[in-house]
């Protein structure tokens, strides 16, 4: 089967990387699945060179890993990865909240953008669309991080959130957890709008700790 590549102006290896990333994050390619350069080249109707470059990029993003014998596989989630990811999230997102607390104009702008994300998340919940919900979650936290006004941090955060999406796909299918997370997002925006940054920080810490706990429990099953 030939996989058709979009985004005509991107280099070929970027198109392959984007398509593979989407397949991994959407669960079409499973955790631990081996990826063959020859097979992928055939599926994408390209030579092995752009496939090799695409896999190198996904390796840098932490979505795939190299095994002995130059075999490549989709990563298998590890508990230590979860701890590191959520440590990074707390550092970045708490810094963003502090920035919003010092800049009311920026806080008003960001809270408006966050409310758009909340509406998208609500639609995803109503439609029971897991990937749409994951996208809305990524946008929500990405908008929050944008308060730091640092493009490099925002780019790195997107890579981190790709890992979260990969790890959390199954936990997002839990209706109770998805609804709780959405309610906490709503409350967080309200605290930002009220200038109640200390309360927002407390809520963010609980939100991230619970998300980490749910994910660790899933991986330990």
TrEMBL record:
GO terms for molecular function: DNA binding; DNA-binding transcription factor activity. It comes from the Bacteria. The keyword Cytoplasm does not apply. PANTHER family: GLUCONATE OPERON TRANSCRIPTIONAL REPRESSOR, TRANSCRIPTIONAL REGULATOR, GNTR FAMILY. Residues 10-77 form the HTH gntR-type domain. Gene3D superfamilies: GntR ligand-binding domain-like (1.20.120.530), Winged helix-like DNA-binding domain superfamily/Winged helix DNA-binding domain (1.10.10.10). Coiled coil: none annotated. CDD domains: WHTH_GntR. Keywords: DNA-binding, Transcription, Transcription regulation. The keyword Transcription applies. This is DNA-binding GntR family transcriptional regulator.
